[in-house]
Write a structure and sequence with these properties.
Blueprint (H helix, E strand, L loop, with lengths): L1 H19 L12 E6 L7 E11 L2 E12 L19 E14 L4 E15 L2 E9 L2 E9 L2 E15 L1 E2 L4 E16 L18 E14 L4
Antiparallel strand pairs: 1-2, 1-11, 2-3, 3-4, 4-5, 5-8, 6-7, 8-10, 9-10, 10-11
Length: 220
């Protein structure tokens, strides 16, 4: 986690360096497409990629893909915001969403978003395993692979600043409020829903992020 944090800090400072070198008379860039990623997701062992298209002046539509991955590890386990820092043996997740963005000022925008994410949490442990012998069902208490599945639906509203500082790149911080609803098997219990960051959380939550983006194609 410490190494990932250093990578994020390095990326953000690199972008700040580019911004500092922007000529005072640089022209604002508004290409037809943009491609961006969100490095803050690395704190949660994830990454989000966004592709956006301008559909009319001041109006943009976007699609985003999000992935999460923690390798299988039973010795030390893992802890993230998603698991509320409870130890888990592994995590996989994939999500898809869409956004609508409206520029109400030259660089300020309002954004509506919605998304769906599927999580597979692995926590191996002892339990009953069913097997058949001579046509009869039997159960044995063994150490076995266990998976918990979570499906989360979200909707959010945010306000952000599109800071174009280079003909190829831009930075886009944003903040707002969201609503989450998670669905999972009742046999899992009320897992990972004690805080707004848990994958089982249901309710409102703050939205905060930053996009590092590329203009496609670059302006001439």
């Amino acid at each position: 986690m410490k190494q990932i944090s250093l990578y994020i800090i390095y990326i953000l400072f690199s972008c700040a360096g580019i911004f500092a070198g922007r000529p005072a008379n640089a022209q604002e860039i508004r290409p037809a497409y943009t491609l961006s990623f969100e490095p803050l997701y690395l704190f949660n062992s994830g990454m989000r990629i966004n592709l956006e298209k301008q559909i009319a002046p001041r109006n943009w539509l976007g699609i985003n893909l999000t992935g999460y991955y923690l390798p299988y590890d039973t010795e030390s386990g893992h802890g993230t915001f998603n698991s509320e820092f409870e130890s888990i043996d592994g995590l996989k997740g994939i999500g898809i969403g869409g956004t609508y963005k409206y520029y109400y000022a030259r660089k300020w925008f309002m954004e509506l978003g919605a998304g769906y994410t599927f999580f597979d949490v692995r926590n191996d442990g002892y339990g009953f395993r069913k097997f058949r012998e001579d046509g009869l069902p039997f159960y044995e208490y063994v150490y076995t692979e266990k998976h918990s599945y979570f499906r989360k639906v979200t909707a959010n509203f945010s306000i952000g600043l599109h800071s174009t500082f280079h003909r190829h790149f831009y930075v886009e911080p944003y903040a707002g409020l969201g609503l989450a609803r998670s669905f999972y098997d009742k046999s899992y219990g009320e897992k990972y829903n004690a805080t707004i960051f848990g994958i089982g959380y249901r309710g409102t939550y703050p939205v905060l992020g930053i996009r590092l983006g590329f203009n496609i194609p670059p302006a001439r």
